[in-house]
Amino acid sequence: MAAMRIAAIVEYDGAGFCGWQWQDDVPSVQQVVEQALSKVANEPVRVTVAGRTDAGVHALAQVIHFDTSVQRSDHAWVRGTNSYLPDSVALLWAGMVSDEFSARFSATGREYRYVILNRPVRPALLTGCVTHEYRLLDIERMQVAARHLLGTHDFSSFRAMQCQAKSPIRELRALDVVRDGERVVIRAYANAFLHHMVRNLAGVLMDIGAGEREPDWAREVLEARDRTIGGITAPPDGLYLTSIEYPAGFGIPAMHGALPLPLAYTQGE
Questions:
Q1: What pTM does this model have?
Q2: pLDDT digits (tens, 9 = 90+) for 34-45
C-alpha cells in the first residue's frame, strides 16, 4: 500500500528532556514520540518536526509529520499514541495531509511566549514552568525597547554561537510585553527563529526592564550584529512554543494551548 503522510500536533513539558532531538543516553521528546507512534503503527516511525526545541523548553502546539503505509483512524493515532506516551507529552491532534506538506518547510509563522514570575521570592509550585526574575520589571521600558527590534533584520546578536542557520535574517512580526500581577509574558512572533533567539531577546528585554540598561540598548545590540555584546541568554524554563502557522489549504488546525498561568492576553491585544 502506498505511503500516506500524517501530520500531528504535540504538547509537552520540556523540563525532563534534553530537548526535542534524539541524543545518546539522555531522554528526548523525539524519542518518546517516535517510540509511541511506532507501537501504534507496528512499524518504525520517524518524524519531521516544525522546530527543534532546546532542553527545558516547552511546547503547546508543536507540529510533526511522518509517512506510513499503515491505515489508522485519526482517533486511533491520537488515543493509541497517548497510551504509550509519558504524562509530560500528549498528542493533541492527528490527520492525513497531502504529500506536499512539511511540518518544517510549509510553516509561514511561529509564535513563542516567555513566561516570567516577577517577584522577590522564587517559585515552589511552578519550578521548571516559569523563569523567576526577582528584579522588578518595568514593562513600559521593555515595550519601548521591543519596538526597536521589529521588522526584518540581521539578528546575529541574538543567535547562539552554535546556530547552524544559513542566514541570520529573520522577520520579527510582533514582540509584545504584558503584565498580569506577578506574571510578565513576552510574546514573539516571526516567520522563523534562530537558535536561542527568543531567549536572547528575553534576556535583553529583562535587563532593560530591570533598569540595568536603557531601551535604546536593544537597537545597539541589534545593529552590532555581535552575540558577545548581547547580554545573557535567559533560562529555558519559561519558554513555550505556542503556535505554528500554515497555509489554510493544508488543513492543520490552529491550536493555542493554555499557558500554565492564567493570563488574559491574546494575539492582537
A1: 0.91
A2: 999 999 999 999
